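Q: What changes when alpha-L-arabinofuranose is included in the input?
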Amino acid sequence: LLTVDTTRLGPVVSPQLGGIFFEDINHSGEGGLYAELVNNRSFMAAATPLHWSTVGGATFAVDTAQPLNQALTQSLRVTAAAAGDGVANEGFWGIPVRPSTTYRASLHVKSPSLTGRLTVAIVGTDGTVHATATTGALTGSWREHELTLRTGPGAPTTLNARLVVTAPAAGTLWLSQLSLFPPTYKGRRNGLRVDLMEKLAALRPAFLRFPGGNYLEGNVIADRFDWKKTIGPVEQRPGHRNSAWGYWSTDGLGLPEYLQMTEDLGCVPLLCVYAGYSLQGAHVTGDALKPFVQDALDQIEYITGPATSTWGARRAADGHPAPFPLTHVEIGNEDWFDRSGSYEERYAAFHDAIKARYPALKLIATTPVTSRPYDLIDEHYYQSPSAFQAGSHKYDGRDRSGPKVFVGEWAAQEGRPTPDLDAALGDASWLAGLIRNSDQVLMECYAPLFSHVNDNTWATNLIAYSGLASYNSPSYYAQQMLRTHRGTVVLPTEVRALPGLNVVTTHDPAARRIYVAAVNTSGTARRTAVSLKGVARTAPYGTVTVLAAADRKATNTLANPDAVVPHSRSVSGISPTFTATFAPYSVTVLEVRTI
Ligand code: AHR
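A: The predicted holo structure follows.
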């Protein structure tokens, strides 16, 4: 029996409960959400031209003697033996080609000896030229060239292509910051991938936690997300080693782009500031911590300050005069790993400085501290599907007087690169528990969000993609269902004699909707009476949305993206007491209209 008591209200559902967490892991940013198609565009990734090759009889080398500027201290020296010689970039596992598509290319070039123009083309690995354009005249000192490349209607949809740059004659030239963008979300310059942003927008996130995770910290301090090196024109950003996840970051996806992303998704930033601890154990204390605290204050000013403030002016120069809304700042990440115990001191230093200048900001601690208060504590959970299915009730018995919780990373781990239905049932059970307890758990976000199918370093991720296509996991759909079919207040719900069923019911009094979300983790259909205690009348029809499959190991893939997707239908026979059946291995949301 399932009894929903509408006469007693449970907790108000935290309006900021559901967010997303982005960090550059599994090529989530570089080669992923960040739409740049050229891999190692600035030649800063190594002392050799990684991801580049020669064309024809050309020779090439990374050159530190001809920097573009003080940020991009390496360029590519190319010596062509004849016209048509040059270099090619392999992209991130191929350059995606689509018919009738316009690409924006740009490159910095100099050549004291060559006259004429370079040819820039997207060329299939079979030699077919899909799109081509030429630069302006070459010059002896650095000059930026911008080009438009357009594929024809007959172009294939393929990743079997490279970006090829060729010289007009024999001679030597230098290249720097060589970039190629396809159309981006909302047409932003230096923007983000359309399909992936659409998937994020459809989750209707309340906030974006960024930029990590381990990516924030780096293995060593020099590899942290050093935000001041991620603002301004992209050719002024040196980039950094993403040592946590094993590849180069150009920082083209920098602080301004993360903030624009929040605005484009209609959510607010949840900023994680580097707090003087990196993954291999380096930790900063005493006076040495002061510059890092100042960096955090400056970062908050960049985000929230008026355009007349020092850092607000930099944001305005980066194209966004209006401040961004900021309510929460997280100090560090997973500082329970810091065995030195320095977090107590580090948190206190950041707390005191931030609260003194921004008293309204809510601060999130990553592990408990005693000398200073915190508004939220960030808890992370990576567990098995069965542990998450059982964990639906973890917060039910929580001491309500304790600190409020931000579950900033969580996932039932089974399946790669994305979770299977079994994991989704765990995730939905767990999320039902978070919603039920959203007087305690004020915010949550699943992790990680993305994996490139060719770099699945972290096994289980919400969304996966190649350079051409992307798909949502069953867990994505389960979370989307529980987010978008949800009221504003929890209704106490009693579940009797229904083993394996995890339920949360919410009510939207303004819309007169009751949402019964039920996760059936068992392989047996559960048929039960649903009693809406205190409801006098309902509309006779309701809507039911179901995510289910006969096999709990069922999953989605690039080749079969719709194997496990939700289906909605209208159901009749709804009344204050009605009968419902919950399919085996399913997530179901029943929407009832009260009259
Ligand atoms: O989400 C993947 C990693 O898990 C994060 O970078 C880190 O915070 C956690 O350990």
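Observations recorded in class: The domain at 52-181 is CATH 2.60.120.260 (Jelly Rolls).
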